[in-house]
Amino acid sequence: MLSWLKNFFSSSEEKQTPVITPVDDRASAQAADDIRIEKSLVFKKLGDGCWSTGSWADAAGYYRQALALNGSSAAIHINLGFVLIEQGLLQEAKSHLEQAIVLSPGLSDSYFFLGKIAQGMGDPDAAITEFSRAVSVDPNFVEAYETLGILYRDRGEIKESVAAFRAALAINPQLHNCHTGLLFSLQYLPQAHPAELFSEHLQFAGQFEAPVKALQRMHSNNPDPERRLKIAYVSSDFHAHSVAIFMLPVLERHDRAQFEIFCYYNASVRDIITEKIQQAASHFLFCENLSDAELDQRIRADGIDILIDLNGHTGNHRLLTFARKPAPVQVSYLGYVDTTGLSAMDYRLTNEDANPSESDRFYSETLHKFKDRLWWSFRPVEDLREMTELPALKNGFITFVSANNISKISDVNIKVWSELMRSIPDARLLIMGTTSPGAQRVLERKFKTEGIELHRLDFKGKLNLAAFREQVMQADIALDTFPFNGGTTSCETFWQGLPLVTLTGESFASRVGYALLNNLGLPELAAANAEDFARIAIELSRDMQRLSALRQGMRARLAASSLSDELGFTKALEASYRGMWRKYLEKAKPE
């Protein structure tokens, strides 16, 4: 302990010389209390100092000593609760935060940290309750609103999610991650028109790209159109994530004679997929701790010619680095379903099925559209099980399945699916990926409002891949979500032998299902409206022969489609990169 602190305690505890005059007992007790509280504050300050350096265990020790002297301090209970959360001691942290609420119910931090504990314990419903209490106590609690935006979205309450993000931004418009959260949640709203979405994305650019445009600098890359190019991918998802799984075949098949491959990883999670990507890339850099200015400098120092963003407006993106234009050519790809809104982003990879020509005006990027193929390839994790018999043949009824994130199940989905269920009274609906009891209750309430008996619904929580596949194979027909279609889950559904019925909209997110089906030679399963959706699903459910044939032949369809052509796709992607580089050099030529 610091010497001055030792002196502080020893001096107050030394035996004093007896005084002659009488002592007032109440005054003496008050003086002792004052000294005790003063000592407690010293320990609290020491704990605060350790907090500031991230020394959680030391901070906890000092806060415990402070509480031993002054157990009625709500502030110390809250601080101890926080550092215990950082140590993973959630139950002990919870008890201190609950005590803080007893002592002082008007402190919003207690509810906020209890919400964090509920998140850590896998109870998003309790977390929503606590964060809601935090903002009721403090209507300006930005972090609580932002977290509510994420939790509501995960529970499928999209209007509430949008409202929470907007509330946070009304308090602090400079929160770019919060703005990203809003843009992502807006994709789930059926009433959101592409023009409105584009306007929202341009607002992000106006808020965050415009101020750094002055920091953009000239590039000194070698202007040889045919030389070996330096290609870099930036992502926070180089781990067991759909983006990484789609990218791995490309990284493994890139032509190293023509391209030098860099990966900038904006996260710390490491797993077997991370290792495979590290092995496939020429260079791999963990960049999470680099500022935008530092990452900009590193990309320039590496001499990157074409920089590809794999996040878009998803968590832990580096769009503010892209706004600085560190590479001559910048591309948005794969991770997000819409424009970035940035003028610094030159291209977005897609195809005509997902982005017909009339949609071009809703993008800040030039849409680079692949011909006669999708904009990715799909490599399923090996599954040696043989395809099973159509479940309806033994069950005696049709089982539909929604395999997507429940946040994608819009109110329009509920109405259309309910109409379908009413038309086939003995059909069942399996809903995958229910995140919590609260999320299930939200869906149950909506289906009940539509008159669907709950015994016809079967909810499953989040499952690992093997369990997911096992459940999907218990169904006969997959129902796509809209306006936010499935992607990875749709490919997995095909792999398990199920046909997919989708509803095609105007936005990219609502046209992925059609693009997939068209690629597999099944465009007739893509509906143009709600009535068409029900008709297609009903007709398919009545044709056991066709359903059985589709089930047994779906993997062969996948194998024969461009989705399985990893090398062909990689070559097409590389040709696109080369073309972009040449166009850049043409534009860069002096007049």
UniProtKB/TrEMBL annotation:
Residues 220-368, 393-567 form the O-GlcNAc transferase C-terminal domain. It comes from the Bacteria. PROSITE patterns: TPR, TPR_REGION. Pathway: Protein modification; protein glycosylation. InterPro entries: Glycosyltr_41/O-GlcNAc_trsf (IPR051939), OGT/SEC/SPY_C (IPR029489), TPR-like_helical_dom_sf (IPR011990), TPR_rpt (IPR019734). Its EC number is 2.4.1.255. Gene3D superfamilies: 3.40.50.11380, Glycogen Phosphorylase B, Tetratricopeptide repeat domain. Keywords: Glycosyltransferase, Repeat, TPR repeat, Transferase. The keyword Phosphoprotein does not apply. One of its GO terms (molecular function) is protein O-acetylglucosaminyltransferase activity. TPR repeats lie at residues 74-107, 108-141, 142-175. SMART domains: TPR. It is an enzyme of class 2 (transferase). Belongs to the glycosyltransferase 41 family. O-GlcNAc transferase subfamily. This is protein O-GlcNAc transferase.
